[in-house]
Design goal:
Elements: E1 2-4, H1 9-21, E2 29-31, E3 36-38, H2 41-54, E4 57-67, E5 70-79, E6 84-92, H3 98-116, H4 125-129, H5 142-155, H6 159-166, H7 179-197, H8 206-210
Antiparallel strand pairs: 1-6, 2-3, 4-5, 5-6
Helix pairs in contact: 5-7
């Protein structure tokens, strides 16, 4: 759904100026398993912020209710004249839990901003993870998920942190051919914990050590 204020001349003029200043968003995120880069939400926001401030535009994003495992992201663009534009983006979730909510919120906000400002979509990881690439991606099975979670508990590694470092939206979206790499990363984390207790360095990403 897309709605606007009655008058639009000032905000459209300001958006045109923003478009002249911002033509794309840099790929600052790295997915170590698909071996490609993508633009994070933080980078999308920071790329737009200076140009929007200069031309009197403020961006606000809110989350709506979760209905039928779908989260609504509300994006409102307001100009200092009082004119505004608002869009609603629905993001499906495989299940309703805090982890899925956080992933859907970040994913939805990022793509809503890219769409609102007509910026190039540079992240194709989600397309592959959702099976919309050339062939459907087989994801980890329930026993494999349980094995990963057991390993995470042994490594004292929060699941959300593990997913973030690995570049995954959720544990059940991990491709099955990444299973061994994930187990190696968990083993590296356990090794890091042991080394930390002996005073050795513990700053490396275990996914880098497992590569």
């Amino acid at each position: 759904m897309f709605t606007t204020s009655d008058k639009q001349s000032s905000i459209i003029s300001a958006l045109m100026d923003v478009h002249k200043s911002v033509t794309s968003v840099g790929k600052d995120g790295r997915n170590p398993h698909f071996k490609n880069n993508y633009a994070t939400l933080e980078n999308v926001i920071m790329t737009l912020r200076d140009a929007c401030n200069e031309h009197g535009i403020i961006i606000q994003q809110f989350s709506g209710k979760c209905v039928d495992n779908s989260l609504t992201i509300i994006t409102r663009i307001t100009h200092t004249s009082g004119e505004w534009q608002q869009s609603e983006t629905e993001i499906p979730m495989t299940k309703r839990d805090p982890q899925q909510y956080g992933s859907a919120l970040t994913y939805g906000r990022r793509y809503a901003l890219l769409a609102a400002f007509n910026l190039p979509t540079v992240d194709d990881d989600a397309e592959k993870a959702m099976g919309r690439d050339d062939k459907k991606v087989k994801t980890v099975s329930e026993p494999e998920i349980e094995r990963l979670r057991n390993g995470l508990r042994q490594a004292d590694w929060a699941e959300q942190e593990f997913l973030s470092k690995g570049g995954y939206q959720s544990i059940d979206s991990i491709p099955s051919d990444h299973m061994q790499g994930c187990l190696r990363a968990i083993a590296a984390r356990i090794k890091q914990k042991a080394e930390a207790r002996t005073g050795m360095n513990n700053n490396d990403n275990p996914f880098n050590q497992a590569a």
